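Lecture 7 notes: from sequence to structure.
We start with the chain below.
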Amino acid sequence: MISVITYGRNDSHGYNLHKRAAISFNALAEVMSDPDDEILFVDYNTSDDHPTFLEAIADTLTDKAKKVIRIFRVRPQQHSHLGARTHLVALEAQSRNVALRRSNPRNRWILYTNSDMLLVPRNEDESLSDIMGALPDGFYETPRFELPEMLWEAAFDRRDPVGNLAKLRDWAVRFRLNQVVHNSMPMRYDALGDFQAALRDDMFAIHGFDEEMLLGWHCDSNLAARLALYRGTVDTLIDKVFAYHCDHTRVAAANNKGRQTKQNDLNRFVWDVATPYLPAQANSWGWPDLDIEEIRLDCDTSFERFFAGVGAAIEPAQAPYETTSLDWCHLDDLTYDVPHTLPFVCDQVLTYPKHTALMFIGTRAELLTRFSTAWRSMGFTGPILVPQECAGLPTDLPGVETGPFHDLLRRAEMFIFEFGLVTQRSDEPLRIGRLATPLDKERLEVVERLFRHAASLEAETRPESQSAPRRFIGVNVIHNWYWRLFTDYIGANLNPFCSQVLAGNPRTAMSMKGKIVRVLDRYRPVARYSAQLRMAPLPRRA
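Predicted structure tokens for the same chain:
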């Protein structure tokens, strides 16, 4: 019956986004009753190393909401061709069109709203699906009423949509919330974008939202102007449903700069509109030829993929805990526990596209073997690229491709650099002063050389299809002198030693010089402490 379309990204847009969004999605799902009803959320331009917004708040959504929500993830790379034309990080017209193109064709109605709205049927015995199912063809709006922040923030339970809707019916009267604000036609009401119901066939006929609207604001007014021309009128549902907005004005949103706010041209896109159609985008609106990932919250979730991948690659521990040490005398000890480290490596890659091509450069065959099992079990279809220069690594594993480093470099979309001891046995105690053998040093020098090359030439060697810097994941680069090497080139957080993993993007040439100075400053006390213990200072690397 209804495809409800919203959009956003995993950021902190406005105020307390995670709570008002959970309240909204749960309430929207609660007033749906048709088996074909769906909520389409376009997660636009969330960073690849983050989950989508709704995945991040999935634990606050009801089971009913999870069943009706479909998430379409538009990656930063898919937005990059528009980056020079807009200051916005999330685009409304593109997002709504992506969802419209992929909506359930059995649904008669498209309802455009936002992720902080509660829709309340005036007749408690009716669902929104009942209301929409009985409507004649047309284009419908309803006024938006504001809900003070203290009411939704302090008194609403995210996972109790029935209780929230009941409270809202009472508070609307108790606190005199319902004030209709009229606007000039064809807008009819203020803030009209929070409830615009159009026939799906009509939206396809007029070619969706205008994708030339790249500066924010008035996309809903443009749609109203065009649908008013197409339908001849703008109808209202004020007698059937009220719409309440979780107000969030304590903190200005990213697209709200007061009088300096950049907006689409109101004359061009509203007052001067003379046709409902957009022939220039007739064949391209909603990016029909683009492979947009769809994510569900009720099946094949990221956690399920993680659980399947790591579970296939490692066995449960036989001891209640393992031990290691941060003693300074072990800074040259590169031993580490592969099964313990693997979950942290998998955690770094899970949110990236399944078709990602990953290059593995390292020393320990055990990590590559286990990781390749996890990679496939997590649903990744892209290859694991292993340079021929890394001797001793298995190349007959499923999905592993090998070749000269130079040939593989431009295909790689992500890197894992592992700095371990090829001679370490899996049952060997950790960090007991174990030194590298000549074979270890030979293999490590290859990894270090390839790392320096890849990080230094990142901008020149990344694939042409990839505009953003590639992600570099370092394994066994904490609390040993490879930390200095890795952070000289890669902007990474100071992660806990227990994870064994650092990750980030290559630094620019200008920022690297200052970073090197700071890194050396950090290590000077270590060298002094080593001297006090009559130990050799940290090795100087070329």
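Points to note: The chain has two domains: 2-291, 299-532. The longest helix spans residues 509-532.
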